[in-house]
Amino acid sequence: MKPLDQASVIPLYHQLKQRLSTKIQSGEWKPEDKIDSENQLMEIFHVSRNTVKKAIEDLVQEGKLYRIQGKGTFVSKPRFEQSLSGFYSFSRVLQEKGLNPRDEVLVIQELYPSTKVKNALELQEDEQVIEIKRLRFADNEPIVLESSFLPKSIINDSELLQEVSSSSLYSLLAQRFNISVVRAKEAFEPVLIKEEEARFLKTETGKPALLLERTAFDTLGKPVEFCISIVRGDRCRFYTELN
């Protein structure tokens, strides 16, 4: 293996980081593989422990590697990428990537909304909403914990919403309730996963996640859904393109 360039102006840790990244990108190290130990990397590349630690730490922060206490360092699964430049469906995005989307309905209930939900849906003080809480999977891996709130006034048969476990919510709204969602606005905020969320998402409390808040509108510009999602930060990445 070609040694690192000790005379280069490029720091050794960065050179090592690039070598390790290449192993991941080329498939030599596959997702969930355990990588060489710090001692092995020190011996292979003739560098100090601090150099190895810095290179690995950078890759952990970038989400390419992860550590398990007492077991070692492993290659992360690739993140699902989604552009923010247009309207999208979680199920359709996964299907386009060759993955199998699945939803598990946790709760469907009628309730009086919080102030945030009421304002987002432009509801009157005494209006109720229907909450649909779902756990969303990609190839049987939980990725998103999602709560959708819809004005009860636009749903004439809430029992039909049980079908959201096997059908897209927006498709169901269009086909059964004649409600077409044509645009949405979203806000994103980095958060840490809480205990209850970690239990559903099969991850650890305190792991990074994205809090997404989406308001969806029909053809008349009326808000028909307010959605709050917790998205695993280790499995999803959102991006935008600027011209």
What's the main sheet like?
6 strands, antiparallel
Following the backbone from N to C, one meets helices and strands in this order, namely: HHHEEEHEHEEHEHEEE
- Widest sheet, order of strands: 4-5-6-9-8-7
C-alpha termini separation = 41 Å
| Rg on CA atoms, Å | 22 Å
Mean pLDDT: 88
Helix content: 25-40%
Walk me through the structure.
The longest helix has 15 residues, at 12-26. Helix 1 (12-26) packs across helix 3 (49-61). The protein has seven helices and ten strands. It is an alpha+beta fold. The strands form three sheets. It has a six-stranded antiparallel β-sheet with strand order 4-5-6-9-8-7. Helices cover 27% and strands 32% of the residues. Strand 1 and strand 2 (72-75) form a beta hairpin. The two termini are 41 Å apart.
Short description:
27% of the residues lie in helices and 32% in strands.
Give structural attributes.
alpha+beta; 6-stranded antiparallel sheet; two-stranded antiparallel sheet; 32% strand
Topology (SSEs and partners):
Layout (H helix, E strand, L loop, with lengths): L11 H15 L11 H8 L3 H13 L3 E4 L3 E4 L4 E4 L6 H7 L4 E11 L3 H7 L7 E10 L2 E11 L17 H9 L5 E10 L2 H7 L6 E10 L5 E10 L3 E4 L4
